[in-house]
Structure formats: structure tokens, C-alpha cells
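Final report, closing paragraph on structural work. Over the funding period we assembled a curated collection of sequence-structure pairs, and we close with a single example.
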Amino acid sequence: MILSLACLLALLPSPAGADTVFLKNGNKMEGLVVREDGREVELDIGYGTVTLPRGDVRRVVRAPDGKKGEQERRRRAFDAGRSVPAPARALQRRFQELQARREAALDAKSRKADLEAEQERLSSELASLKSRYGPAKEELQAKRGAGPDAYNAAVQGLNDIATSAEAARIKLERSRKELESSGKDIQEYLAAFEELKEALAKDDRYSGRTEVPQDEREFYEGLKDMVREMDRDFSAGEASSEKRGPHVVVKASINGKVRASLLVDTGATIVTLSRRVFEKLELGPEAQRGEAEVTLADGRKLKALVVVLDSVEVGGMRARRVEAAVLPESDPQADGLLGMSFLKHFSFRLDTERNRLILKAVR
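Its predicted structure, as stored:
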């Protein structure tokens, strides 16, 4: 059986940096050695592992890049759940759950750009259709005294615009819901990763406060490799903040053209802007989303125009397609609120000692 498998593998391209196992029957096998002891050699061949009796192995030649090869072996052993020490089994299960969240988040991130582009296209299309509806309605009124053919054509034209606008509105709403779902997957990964890092910081073996037994070192080294890899999934930014009474205020760039001082408010469901900042933005009708009721800090409720901002950037971290409410009143402390329609795109925390707002997102 070893001979036939080895002959088959000889026909396949060799993986870069592979280990080589030379067999006593003259054949050889290539892959990554994940375990080697006095009885067996276990070789990962890329689509599964093969366990070879030590008596059939003449010698094992490791890949030249020892450090990289060792990391890859640890990674594969870790992914397969091999060599998990009993005290760390719960930690391994938790990490596997995190890996599932990671896959969902990275898939969501790849869809996000397409969904945002689709929203821009549909918003522009809907605004164009709405601008055509008024003139088409006036034309219909003008055709009432004309012949039936001209009148019916005007009716058909108005109905076509209304039907297309409704179809665009439904597609836009569906796209928004899918984008919200994608954002939820990303946020769950962000939160779960931060929670795991906190748990690992308390783990004496992982943190190095307790010496790790020899037979457990591979697991903990593999775990550290994976945490470092996941760390590269994220980008982070910091914004300086200032205290104004009990509130924290940061500088934001709106649509890349207007600077505003926004009060950080995790209790606000939406970003709010003063009328002054809104007028500086010079937004077209395609950015408007109607009205919504907004509750102010003093408990009063006001009707406010809701718009979609192309972008909001704080501390080098940017969120696109951010909903904002335009307040009819100005607040002397700030130009508005930095609410959850922006903050939901990030893992965030306030460093009160350094007066910094720290934001983290999936790249």
C-alpha cells in the first residue's frame, strides 16, 4: 500500500518547502512531518495525513526553512486538534468557534464592498427616477385634453417610472439588510477575538507565567502562531479626544471635505450633525432618506432629516455609507454626535488615561 501511494505522489508536484520521507523500498514521499517518534512518522500530504511505520522509513529530510516549516507543522497539528493538553481542551474548542466566526467575517468583508457599490448605484437610480416622476406627472395632466393615444402613452410612462422606482427601492432595502447582516458577522468576530485575547492574557501557560511542560509546548506555540495570524486581520486607529464636561469629543472628517467636532455617544443609534455642518456638505437629494424622530440628550424628541453620508473618518478609520440625522438646533459643545451608525463598524474603547478613542476593524 505504501509503494502504490508513493508512486502516485511521485506524479504530483512537490509542495514548496516540503519535508521528504525516504522509504526503505526506494520510494519517497513529500509533505509536512507533523509527528515523528520511535514507532511512526505522520506526514501531512496536503489533503490528509499518512502514518508510516518507522520500520519502513529509511530517513527523514526536513525542509531547509526550519522556522517556517516548524510553524506550518504546528499550524497543521493545531488545526487537526492533535497534541491538545487536557487542561486546554476548552480553550481549543473556543478557538475553533472563533475560527468559524473568522471565516464568516472574512466572507462578509469581501461582500461588503460589492454591497456598498450596489447601494450607491441603486440610490442614484432611485434619485433619478424620483426626479423624473414630477415632470412625468405634469405631462400626464397636460395630456388629459389630448387624444387617447397621447394620454395612454403618458399614463404608461408615469407607471413605468413608478414601477422602476419601487423595484429599486425594494432592491435597495434588501441590499441594506444584507449589509447589516455582513456587519453583524464582522462585529461578532471582532468581539470574540478581543474576548479570547483577554482570556489568553489570564492563562498562565499561554502568558508564560507558568512553565509549559514539554509535551504541551507544541499546542501553545501553535496557538500563539494563530493569534498572531488573526491579529493581521485587523487594522487599528486612534483619535485624540478632549473632555467637555462629562462628554468626550473627537474630530471627524465628513465625506472627506468637512471637519466636525463630534461628541462620542454610544447611546445614540445614529450620527447627528448640526444644520451648519449639513449645509457645508452640500448634499444632493439622492443622499436624503426622509425624516426620523430623534431623542435629544435632555429627553426632547424632534423630527430630523436623515441623510446617508459617503464616509465618516475618525482617527484614520473610515466607515462608508453612514446614516446621519440633521438636527435643527446646534449644540455649543459639539457639531453633533458620533453615534452607533458609525461606531458599529468597529471594535472601540475609550482610553481615558490618554484621552484617546481606539478603533479596530477587519481589514
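The longest strand covers residues 301-314. Residues 148-202 form the longest helix (55 residues). We thank the funder for supporting this effort.
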